[in-house]
Amino acid sequence: MSLMKRNPGNNIELWNREFPIPQALDRLHTEMSRVFSDLFRGDLAADGSFFSGNWVPAADVSETDDSYIIRVELPGMKKEDVKITVNDTLLTIRGERKDETEEKKRTYHRIERSYGSFERSFNLPGAVMSGSVEARYGNGILTVTLQRTEESKKKVHTIMIK
Amino acid sequence: MTKEIEKPKVDGTETNATETVRVIRPAVDIQELADSYVVRVDIPGAEKESIAAHISESTLTVSAKVQDHLQRDWAIASETQLPAEYRREFSLADNVETQSVDAAYELGVLKITLRKKQQFLPKEIKIA
Fold first, then answer.
1. Of B2, B46, B70, Cβ closest to residue A71
2. What is the DSSP letter of A10?
């Protein structure tokens, strides 16, 4: 029996091929900043990869001068399987992604997509007008638009220079 | 069918002559049935017209351009959104019939059905 000489260079090469380092670093950075921003937003379970358990769909929250827009990736889900509720400044989206496979007897070679129920809540930065919520679903993306109240709209004051 | 071609495949950005594109590696499920393979690819946000699927003797390539992809982050509306492209490539096993492939797109999911070649299907042996 002979011991194989360990070549430290091999590992690096492998790492390189699978994850080009600049991209990997970029990803790490994005992931880290996301975790931090989620922590501060009180939106801990932002991604199933960090807090395993239920599936959590990806979402973007943005604002314009008069509205908040939340977009959630829900590929493969039907409109009827999604429920949206607004309670004061808390928007909750819940639903279930059903397993769409047609046969019970099956061999999987890869399962990367998530199934099951999910719930995701968003604390809106300001008050919204009740009854102003509009939701659209198309091509696997849910877009919820909420109108901001007059008070929560961005106020820009011009400061007089004396 | 199950093998993925080894090449840089993490999400990243790419610049070609005309524009910078964010490349996204979509999630897939690959299921094997008795007479076929079913590939499901999540490409939320893609319009049907923007999806391209190509098959050759040994590879299956799926790509879709999206103008306005999620940043997947809490973000205050940013005006500099990059166009994005979902892209993924698979190497096919010898038993895949590349002449008859079905593809359907619904609700952000692309479903591709690849049939197995006749000679690879299980045969019933009759007892004489």
1. B70
2. H
